[in-house]
Amino acid sequence: MRLLRLIRIFWATALLAEIEYRVNFLLAALNSMASLAGALFGLSLFFRHGATLGGWSWNEALVVLGLFTALSGLSSTLLTPNLNRIVEQVKDGTLDFVLLKPVDSQFWLSLRRFSPWGIPDVLFGLGLLIYGASGASGALLNLPGALLPLIACVVILYSLWFIMATTTVWFVQIYNVTEVLRSMLDAGRFPIDAFPSGAYRFVFTFLVPVAFLTTVPARAVLGLAHGVDVVLSGAVAIALFACSRAFWRFALRFYTSASS
Amino acid sequence: MFEAIRLWALKIRVQLAAQIALVATYRAEVVLWALSGTLPIIMMGLWTKAATDAPAGITPVQMVRYFAAVLLVRQMTFVWVIWEFEQDVMQGHLSHFLLRPFSPIWHYIAGHIGERLVRLPVVLALIGLCFALYPSAAFVPSLSDLLLGFAVIAFVLLTRFVMQLASAMMCFYTDRASNIETLQFTAYMFLSGAIAPLEMFPPQVRAFAELTPYPYFVYLPARILMGEPAPVAQGFTVMTLWGLVFLGLQQIGWRRGLRHYSSYGA
Question: Given CB atoms, is A170 within the 8 Å cutoff of chain B?
Fold first, then answer.
């Protein structure tokens, strides 16, 4: 409960700081709309000559794209502003102040900041998801069944980001480790079945688990998920989260602070 | 006369050498930037499979070659001047650059050229990866295609640089000018052929796209490198026209912006 109260205080102050840039919100919403239109256009190109994309119909593919859009909105609201700060704090030595606080350092670093600019993306994404799901199966019945994969995909996304951000303890100058991850995650705009079997599917299932970020939860929303997928996505989420915590503790041993 | 040329040569040499040394120091960062440009490899997988499942005029081998060329083109024409300029204006570094005996813009140009050299090995490795995924599509462009391709790439780099520099002039008036660039980047992403060859576009969309400079930034050089027919003259014309418009805007923005500039030291 103390953590929840802290989150409220964190986000209220962060919001106050960001509200100084009101025009920015308009630009962000405009950007979201433009890139959503572009993404829909890009997806539609696959359906001009074939009726399906790796066995997924247009409406089903919209669920995947909707999830992707919502997740990337979530990243720009919570992940980017917080985790990119780790780089600065390691560089300036201000990470010391965080470590001295009587709060779990991973919690502080992950949730201290909040940037409202990603909210339009989250809303558009969820809208697209609901539109696609109702067009595909007639009714949106499977949300309760999709709860576990949906939570799992958020946890997986967070853990991947945090692990990447943690590497900055060693590579101080690198601002863009997270850019590499972001570019790989772009594969999540499309269902995993749209990729050729072999190297592509292996990489996007096991190395960068993009499949669990959008394809598996989308299948669950559509009521098409196999039980194994759902259990596996939960397992991957728990494993990656545990990894991110263990890796952070490990990295801190190598952090030579500015003052000690 | 000769003295002037000698001075210019000196300025160019010093700037380039300094920028290359700077980029080489942060080479890990450059490698990561290069690695973050893997979208063409993702699109390659999707389109090759789509071309196999539902043939639509372009063979899977051509798809692989197209996206390998797109990868090279996008990496070689990457422009970031607005982000650097934004920082320099906000933190007042621009004041120091203004004291130099030439326009600060040359500083950014030298930086962009120097970075290419450090990036090239990574780009070649990524292209190697493309052809390792699809060995049957591996090819080496003919010498004439390579020369023409790189001439177009150089012109694209120049045009994109001018266009982004024009938006960068907004930095004199707002703290977050790079947001404006994001909008332009979206248009670039979806109209340039970076996500699909233009042949896959509906005809009306393609006709519209060809009036904008974007298809000539990616699709045109990629087609040339593949050895396929490409609208070269049209590309140069459209890029020149748009480039001149943005150059005009940039010149106006620079003159007015500098008068408005009031950072530390100015």
Answer: no
